[in-house]
């Protein structure tokens, strides 16, 4: 795979990861009612996310309410919020920087070494974005798991388990880090050596024909 194709694949993967991270941050299904156990109650399903909590009835009606106060939230929710916001910001800047540094764009093509360095910087931003998403989702999942097994007095079907947004977040983190790694494969040192070799070979060739 050529350098340009590799960069394009990495950019598309990282862009997909950023969009998935945005969807995961907005979705309220970070944790949902557990349907394990013998006495399953399916009349109302509860979902909670970083920004709101929702109740879905068996009739299809869904009612959502935003979290009232930031200070009254648990520490893991506040931390996950902050990490997801940082992840989205890093990914947004990574999208802009990578477009400038990719070989398939015309911006700054007169200096390929600097252009490759910019692409690597965009890849690093995507990797950091993926790590922040991974940390946010894993922290929240750890808390859900801890509460599920800690509350032994609560019936199993009244506890919470993993929601679909957590799996979307894990997928987003993987795509962002994969795309950023492919963008970081742009090596400006090789291009610099190639340019120097090309410049040194031109005078010698001209002297031979003279």
Automatic annotation (TrEMBL):
Topology with respect to the bilayer: Multi-pass membrane protein
Q: For this UniProt record, give its keywords in alphabetical order, as a comma-separated list.
A: Cell junction, Cell membrane, Membrane, Tight junction, Transmembrane, Transmembrane helix
Q: Where in the cell is it found?
A: Cell junction, Tight junction; Cell membrane
GO CC aspect terms: bicellular tight junction; plasma membrane
- Protein origin, superkingdom: Eukaryota
Matching InterPro entries, A to Z? Claudin, Claudin_CS, PMP22/EMP/MP20/Claudin
Any GO MF annotation of the entry: structural molecule activity
Q: Does the keyword DNA damage apply?
A: no
Q: Which Gene3D superfamilies match?
A: 1.20.140.150
Q: Transmembrane segments in this chain: where?
A: 82-102, 118-142, 162-185
Question: What is the documented function of this protein?
Answer: Claudins function as major constituents of the tight junction complexes that regulate the permeability of epithelia.
Against PANTHER family, the record matches this protein to: CLAUDIN (PTHR12002)
**Which family does this protein fall into?**
Belongs to the claudin family.
Name of the molecule in the record: Claudin
Source organism: Lepidothrix coronata
- State which gene encodes it: CLDN19
